[in-house]
Design a protein that fits this description.
Elements lengths: L3 H19 L20 H18 L2 E5 L11 H16 L6 E2 L13 E4 H7 L5 E8 H14 L20 E7 H4 L13 E8 H11 L13
Helix pairs in contact: 3-7
C-alpha cells in the first residue's frame, strides 16, 4: 500500500501527464501592422518619450573630435577601415596587451564618417553592435590561413604592421592579433581562429575603443595608404 505522500505524488504525475497529452498547438493568425508616411504618432507615447529623447540627444550630440575629410569603407582597403583598425590596435596596446596588428571585419563597419566635428552619436552609427576586443595568439599556420581568408574576401580593415602577413617567415612561430569577439567566435568565416593557442577577452567594446581613440587623437589622424595583402 502506498504511503499518503507517495499517493499524492502519483496522483500529481497522472494529472500532469493527462493534461499534457490533451493539449494541442493551435495556429494564431494575425495581420502585420504596416507603418508608412500616413502613420501618425500616438501623442501619449510621444509625451512619455520626449524627456528621455531630449536627454539622449544631448548625450549623442556631444562633440568628441574632429575629422579632416569625409571617409567611407571600401575594399580592398580604405581610409576609414585603416583608422578603425589603428584605433583598436591603439586601445588594445594601451590596455597592456601584446599585439602585433589588428584586423576587423568589413561588414562590422556600418556607416561612413563625414568631415568636421565628430559626435558621440556618429560612433554609434559606425559601430552599433556590442562587439568587444579579443586578443588571440595564433600559430604560423593559422596566420597563413588568415591571410588566405582575407584575400578570398577581397580585403579587410587592417592596422599598421599588417605587412607581417604578406611574407610569413618560418622563424615567426606566433602572432598576437586584436580582432572583435564575433570573428574570434568564428563569425564571417573565421572558424579556423578557434584553433588559436591562447585567447584573451578584454571586455572592451570596439565602440568604446574607437571613442577613446578619437578623443585622444584630435584632429583625427588619417592614413590613406593601401593596406593590401
Amino acid at each position: 500500500m502506498l504511503s499518503q505522500s507517495k499517493s499524492v505524488f502519483f496522483l500529481c504525475v497522472v494529472l500532469f501527464v493527462h493534461c499534457k497529452t490533451e493539449q494541442s498547438i493551435q495556429p494564431q493568425i494575425a495581420s502585420n501592422l504596416s507603418i508608412n508616411s500616413n502613420y501618425e504618432n500616438d501623442p501619449k507615447i510621444d509625451k512619455i518619450i520626449k524627456p528621455y529623447a531630449k536627454d539622449l540627444d544631448a548625450v549623442m550630440n556631444e562633440i568628441i573630435g574632429f575629422n579632416p575629410m569625409f571617409i567611407e569603407k571600401q575594399k580592398p582597403s580604405s581610409t576609414l577601415g585603416n583608422m578603425m583598425a589603428d584605433a583598436i590596435l591603439y586601445t588594445t596596446v594601451k590596455e597592456g596587451y601584446k599585439v602585433d596588428f589588428c584586423i576587423l571585419n568589413y561588414g562590422g563597419i556600418r556607416s561612413s564618417l563625414d568631415s568636421g566635428n565628430i559626435t558621440l552619436g556618429e560612433t554609434y552609427e559606425l559601430m552599433p553592435f556590442e562587439n568587444q576586443i579579443t586578443v588571440l595568439k595564433i600559430s604560423n599556420e593559422i596566420a597563413k590561413d588568415l591571410r588566405q581568408h582575407i584575400l578570398q574576401k577581397g580585403g579587410e580593415p587592417m592596422s599598421d604592421k599588417f605587412q607581417m602577413l604578406r611574407d610569413i617567415p618560418k622563424n615567426q612561430p606566433y602572432y598576437h592579433i586584436a580582432i572583435n569577439d564575433y570573428m574570434a567566435n568564428g563569425g564571417d568565416g573565421y572558424g579556423f581562429l578557434s584553433k588559436a593557442t591562447q585567447r584573451w577577452d578584454t571586455k572592451i567594446k570596439i565602440r568604446d575603443g574607437l571613442i577613446d581613440y578619437i578623443k585622444t587623437h584630435n584632429p583625427l589622424p588619417l592614413s590613406v595608404d593601401k593596406r593590401e595583402l
